[in-house]
Input
Amino acid sequence: MTAKKKTSTKGKPPARPTLRDRALSIINDVSAYDVDTRIAVNNTLTDHKASLASDAELREAIRRAESGETILDLAGVAEEYADAARATLALLNLPGVPAFVSDALSTALAEAQTRTGAGIWQEPGGAREDLGDYSPLVLARVFAHDSMLKIELEPKKDLAELLSAVLRHADTPQVISEAIKEAMAQINEDETDPRFVALILEAAARAENGGE
Output
C-alpha cells in the first residue's frame, strides 16, 4: 500500500484580492479614507453589481481611492459647486487665515447644517487634513440646492432685548430713555430687564388685539 503524497502549499502566493474585496476594504476603512470617497466607491460597487458599471470603472474608482485621491460622486451637482465647496473647506486650514475668518466660516457651516439637515460634518476619522472635518460633497449639494439660504452669524435679538439694550446703554440720550420709559406705563420693576420689557410688549399686543 503506497502512501499518498501530500500536496505542498509552501511558497504558494496568496490569492490576490478581487475588485469587490478591494472596494469593500475602502468602504469599511474609516481611518484611511474620507467619507465622500467611501460613498463614491460604494456607489460604483453597487452599480457594478447591477451591471451598470464596468470592471474598468470600478477598477478606476479603486485606483483613485488607493492613491489618496478624494472622489466626489457629483451626480446631479455642477462642478462649480464642488470647486466652491473644496475652496471653502480648504480655507479653514489655510495658513495665515485669521481666526475671526475661520471662526465665522465654522459658524456658518454649523448653521447651514442645522438649517438644512445636511451632514456637512464628517464622522471622526473620516476627514482629509487639507479639507478639515467636513464633507465637500455634502457642502457642494448644499450650495447647489440651497443657493438662496441665508445664514445669520449672530442670533437675532428680539424687540425686548433691543429696547433693553437702548435703556442700558451709557450713550443713550436721556430724552430717548425717558420717552421709552414713559411709553411703558406703570413700570414697577427694573425697566432695563429684557424679560420685563417682554412682558410689557406682550401686554400691549394683547390690548391691541382686544384682549385675546
